[in-house]
Amino acid sequence: MHLFCTCTLSFLLLTVSHLVSATVSNSFRDCRQFFYLQTAPAGIRGITLKSICQKYADKLRYATLYDSSRHLPLYSAYVFKKSDGKKRMDTPWMYEPQLVSDDESGNMKALPLTADTPPPIEDNQAVLEDYTDAVDYSRGPLNPDLHQAEPDDKSSTYTLTNVVPLITDFLDTSWKVYLDNIRRRLNNFCHGKSFIVTGITVSGANIKRGNTDRLAIPKHLWLAYCCPWFDHNSPYEVRFMFPSYGGYALNKQDDHAVVEVPLKTLENFLSSQKDIDSDVTIFYKGCVSENPLKKRDLTHA
């Protein structure tokens, strides 16, 4: 009887442990739906990586590969649906409690930090104070609210595990314009879900708070989308940008125009950057068209 109780208790503890730590792990098992064919990008390396299934209001919203040593995300992956491009103006910035402690809900929590916040929180992720003296930089989201359709999905993008320090002029004059162009393109010509991955390359430079390196500064920002179901009769100037395409830009004060390129060209470019493997893959099998008309054309070619 004693042996039975001990085994039962051990089983229950293991079950509870799994439930409370499901959203931060070394894999994206619980949020594979945010990746094309449920397969995460391969070949992107970091120092201390955590796979975060970003959860807000008790619902999983997107996935982020987070480097807790550098205090920045390496990429965020999300599903794009038709979006109005509007921003949320009333959402506080949040942090991810499960990077440092088991939280029974798994939900991101609002900043600023309070007395009951786990002490190691700043060791594992960025906080608002890290941006206080970073006068040339703004918090740049990898999964932007303007690419989300529902209010809660928009709100979920306001977590510091989803943002990186970007030169303010680059963010405002180049990257936001590019994001809106992508939004309009997918709104108009993508007939189903679009899978988007937005990431960074590392520069080796850091933003300090006091005498301590706090935030790694990205060298590049990049984005790739995969839209398997698209309008085969779209205008010539955008037809070649489906089912997949991408773009990248330098995180600099000048020369920060976004360069749009085919997916394979983007992967080849990334493979030359620090901490990215030569065989990096963003979308499994390169994002294959599922457009029936396209398949019929290929059959009769």
TrEMBL record:
InterPro entries in the record, alphabetically?
Answer: DNA/RNA_non-sp_Endonuclease_sf, Endo_G_ENPP1-like_dom, ENDOD1, ENPP1-3/EXOG-like_nuc-like, His-Me_finger_sf
The record ties this protein, via Pfam families, to:
Endonuclease_NS
Q: Where is the ENPP1-3/EXOG-like endonuclease/phosphodiesterase domain?
A: 59-290
What GO annotations for molecular function exist for this entry?
A: endonuclease activity; hydrolase activity; metal ion binding; nucleic acid binding
Q: Which UniProt key words apply to this protein?
A: Endonuclease, Hydrolase, Nuclease, Signal
Superkingdom field: Eukaryota
The record ties this protein, via SUPFAM superfamilies, to: His-Me finger endonucleases
Limits of the DNA/RNA non-specific endonuclease/pyrophosphatase/phosphodiesterase domain: 58-276
Q: How far does the signal peptide extend, from start to end residue?
A: 1-22
How is this protein named in the record? Endonuclease domain-containing 1 protein
Highest classification ranks of the organism = Eukaryota, Metazoa, Chordata, Craniata, Vertebrata
